[in-house]
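Annex B.
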Amino acid sequence: MTGLPDDPVLHALGPWLGSERGVLLAVSGGPDSSALMHAAAALGAAVRVATVDHGLRPDSSPEAEGVGRAARALGLPHAVLAWTGPKPGTGLQDAARAARYRLLTAHAEAVGAGLVLTGHTRDDQAETVLMRLAAGSGPAGLAGMRTERPLAPGITLGRPFLALPKAMLVAWCTARGIPHVRDPANADPRFARGRLRATWAALEREGLSPARLARLAERAARDDDALRAAAEQALAAALFPPKNTDAAALRLDGTALAALPEAIALRCLDAALTRVGAAPRRLERLESLVFEAVLPALRRREPIRRTLAGILVATDSAGTLSLAPAPPRRHKTAN
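tRNA(Ile)-lysidine synthase: predicted structure tokens.
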């Protein structure tokens, strides 16, 4: 499917709609996702629309119903996906984000959609990079949001507007008389994104613009992809054949790992942890394990045992590194 060459919004979205996979649009009613829905309709795409109602504001339900009316006026099927149940007292935005993608993934599976598209813009990317920079993230975090990533087997999340500034989408909607809502939570100082948005004017005066932060994300993503590919190759080369006694474990040539550049060794161990079913882990804890314990032990041929994210990581005097699910902790019983 091709868009109009002089319309950057249609030009950005068009290539995403030419797939044979069913397409589900995530539309909140804001200017970015409203542009996504109306642009898809302008391109004649047969897509579905879903709105997640987080139930966090009195206006959320009417806003979701408003998106439904707009979608049906364009001839697009629409569903409201409600986030029900108790809401956490802390980490509310993170929990809402997780719930949003969980609901969208489940709905995509139900309707047979293989592609879920959101309206994230370059401004959203810049905010993500800035927040991760403040958190001390490494290259993977500074790469920000990827243009596409897997949501579930057979379902991909895509962000066709990630290179477009938000102002362009707002102007696109305004020029076409497309109504949209504004979420007051976007400027709420209780949340990190709201506080960061209040600093944009000062940051831009110092040259830290959304465009430059988005460019940083592109560069970090390029480097992280290269390092990750090198780490996967190193992991494949270091793997010993599995022992029949413990198919869930991995055994690696520690001498080869210890000779790797540290950035690749770190990612190699991270990939190995993922393979054996490790839980999500913080970069700081992974760095501490690899740089302060595992690599020094391998270089000294010293046996150690450490646990991270539910995985027992051990070295032996022969220079072998093994990873396996940690045994359950024993609970002390009262006498």
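Strands lie at 22-26, 48-53, 78-82, 113-117, 148-152, 155-158, 250-253, 304-308, 311-315, 320-325. The chain is about 45% helix and 15% strand. Further annotation is deferred to the next reporting cycle.
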